[in-house]
Structures are given as C-alpha cells and as structure tokens.
Amino acid sequence: MKILVGTNNENKLRQFRRIFNNLNFESELLSLKDAGIKDDIKEDGNTLIDNAKKKAKYYAEKSNLPTLADDTGLFIDALNGEPGVHAKRWHAGTEKDRYMMILERMRGEDKRSCRYIGALAFYNPENKEFWTYEKSIEGKIAYEPKDVGGFGYDAIFISLDFNKYYSELTDEEKDKILHRTLGAKELVKYLKES
C-alpha cells in the first residue's frame, strides 16, 4: 500500500519510514517530494488534531493517495501552555532559537512540568474517511539544553518515563512512548481491518 506522509520535515519522514519498516506492514511511504508536491500549508487549527487532519486531507486530495500527517506541540505549565499548538510558529528563528527563548523565559522558575502532545491523522481520498490518534508524553523542562540528537524541543525536554533528555533517547526507547510509533501500530490495525 502506498501512503503519502504529509510533511516537509525530513526527521519526521525518516522516523515514520523506520517505524513502518519495523511493523512489517507492506507499505511504501512516499514523501511530498516523491509526489511532486512543493506546497506547505498553514497550520492554523485550534488543536493538533485539526492541524493534522487539515494536512492529511489537503495532501491526499492533491495527490489522490491515502495520506498520514501529524502535528506535535509542547505545553509548558509555567508558561500557561505555551508554545502549545503553535510550537513551530511560536517564536521566529531556528529550533535552537525557540528552545533558548523558553529557557530564557523560565529562568528562575521552579515549576518545570510540561508535556509533548502528538496527533496523527490519516485520510483516504477514496472513501473520504479520517482516522485520528493523540498521545501525551509527560516531562519537565531542563535548566540547560543537551543538543545531542532529536529535533524540535528535544534538547530541553526531559522525559519522565526515562528521566533522560528526549534528545538522548534511543530509537527503541522512543518507540515505547512516541505518538508516531504507538499511533502507527493503531493505524496498521485499522488498515488491516478496513
């Protein structure tokens, strides 16, 4: 089965390909580039699910391929849930600029609790049906970054499951908690049943 992955983020695409390969599900994951799509759509939904559904439907209708898309947000309690659903658009600049801005804003703050929330949406343009999934990972914001791997806010997010920086987690550790992995397992079940 050919599935288009509705993202321009190479890290996410690599992750999805590795995950689906490990699930032994006969599928070929295509990138937007493979499908000849150069568009980037505005993620202006009120929720992560809204954004994931918007991307999945848009790219599915453009390519006429079943499409999987996701959206992830970092919700920090001391910042009233910021950056939240706007994780990528919350502050201009690079990923590092964004996480350094968080550390700056949280200087002197002892309440470090936060969570990554990830949403997946799959849209089939043939039957016009959506499938969605959402998962939360509890964590805390570090006092100093540790940029040794990962992407986004991984350099400042400490996973409570492992008491390690998210950027330090192995693929095997991530697969136990990551919404992309757990959601992909559920999606494969859904696809096999339908």
From TrEMBL:
One of its GO terms (biological process) is nucleoside triphosphate catabolic process. InterPro entries: ITPase-like_fam (IPR029001), RdgB/HAM1 (IPR002637). Belongs to the HAM1 NTPase family. PANTHER family: INOSINE TRIPHOSPHATE PYROPHOSPHATASE, INOSINE TRIPHOSPHATE PYROPHOSPHATASE/HAM1 PROTEIN. One of its GO terms (molecular function) is nucleoside triphosphate diphosphatase activity. The keyword Hydrolase applies. It comes from Candidatus Nealsonbacteria bacterium RIFOXYC1_FULL_40_7. One of its GO terms (cellular component) is cytosol. This is Uncharacterized protein. Keywords: Hydrolase.
